[in-house]
Design goal:
This protein has about 280 residues and is of the alpha+beta class. It folds into two domains: about 140 residues, no CATH class; about 110 residues, Maltose phosphorylase, domain 3 (Sandwich). The protein contains five helices and 15 strands. Strand 5 and strand 6 form a beta hairpin. The longest helix has 15 residues. The radius of gyration is 23 Å and the shape is elongated.
């Protein structure tokens, strides 16, 4: 009752009620980041994300009212922390429901990308970044409950989601499944032992991947990547620097997995190259 209770304990103040909550799938998002797959029914996940996009994403906030802190306004766009599309908002809801937080927007955009909705993910990110374009707001500071708020670090998940990069240090397994521009893709990667870049080039008859370390190293025993639904590629060749590597290829669901005869370590100056051909 000290400023946060209610006269009726069955209906306490400052609750969500029947809100459409922006981060209602936070656990599933984190499971994707960690490479754990689906914790929930895949169709339900897609439906929930589409509902959040439909009800909470507002590309023009000129008519939106926010009586708390204002992180977006006028012709700017953003994703609301919560919305009440059925009109069942509590008389005294939780205070921040009408705000926009980049930390949750990036998380939401990354989850959209994990589910293959990359155009929608890009729209959400563009709205957030346009609000912090260096003219309207500081591009290096995305405040929420304070300056340089940590939640905006969820933006890093977008690199993982869009690049399809996942590394298991336990299995020494590297998975590369870019979700945008897969035919000609290049991206940064990082693991605890090092960082670098990888590239992928796909044609109707070949699929080439190169993984390069710029600092530190990465041990790899298996390399997995997705096909593009075209001609089957059953011939594999691999090299570590100038050394040819014996390798085998197998299908694993939607993935093609290349297993090396021995574990290899990618270091600066010795990139890992794999080529699949029809």
């Amino acid at each position: 009752m000290v400023g946060m209770g209610a006269a009726n304990p069955e209906k306490p103040d400052y609750q969500m009620g029947e809100a459409c909550l922006l981060d209602q799938l936070l656990g599933q998002y984190m499971a994707h980041v960690a490479g754990l797959g689906y914790l929930l029914d895949e169709e339900h996940v897609h439906k929930a994300l589409k509902s959040v996009l439909h009800y909470n994403y507002i590309p023009d906030l000129s008519e939106h009212e926010c009586v708390q802190r204002t992180y977006a306004l006028n012709d700017e766009g953003g994703v609301l922390v919560a919305s009440y599309p059925r009109g069942k908002r509590p008389e005294i809801p939780f205070p921040y429901f009408a705000e926009t937080w980049t930390g949750e927007e990036y998380q939401f955009a990354a989850h959209l990308a994990f589910e293959g909705m990359t155009a929608e993910a890009q729209a959400v990110v563009e709205s957030a970044r346009l609000r912090h374009d260096g003219e309207r707001r500081n591009p290096w500071n995305e405040p929420e409950c304070g300056y340089h708020y940590a939640r905006a670090m969820s933006a890093w998940a977008l690199i993982i989601a869009l690049s399809g990069f996942h590394y298991s240090g336990v299995d020494r397994r590297l998975t590369l499944t870019p979700r945008v521009r897969a035919e000609n893709f290049r991206c940064f990667w990082s693991v605890p032992s090092g960082w670098g870049r990888f590239s992928q080039t796909m044609t109707p008859t070949s699929h080439a991947v190169e993984v390069e370390a710029l600092e530190g190293s990465m041990a790899v025993a298996r390399l997995a990547f997705a096909g593009n639904g075209k001609a089957a590629r059953k011939k594999v060749s691999a090299r570590l620097g100038q050394e040819a590597l014996p390798a085998t290829l197998r299908e694993e669901g939607k993935l093609r997995v290349v297993a090396f005869e021995r574990e290899v370590r990618i270091v600066p100056g010795q990139s890992l190259s794999v080529l699949l051909r029809a």
